Amino acid sequence: QKRYYLKLRAQLDPLRRPSDSGPNRPVLMISGITMRGTGIFCNLLAFLRWVDFAQRMGYIPVIDMQNVENLYLEDELLGKVNAYEYFYRQPAGIGVEEGYRARELYIVNRLDCPYDFTRAQKKAYREATRIVDWVYGENREKYFDRIKAIYDRYFVPSDEAAAFVDARFRELIAPNERTIGLLCRGTDYFAKRPYKHQIQPTAEQIIQKTDETLAAHPADKIFVATEDADILAALKAKYDEKLVYIDCPRLTAVQGQSVAEGFAERGVDKKMNGWYYFASIAILARCDHLIAGKTMATQFIRTMRDTPFETEFYWNLGRYGVDDKK
Question: Is 326 helix (H, G, I), strand (E, B) or coil?
Answer without folding.
Answer: coil
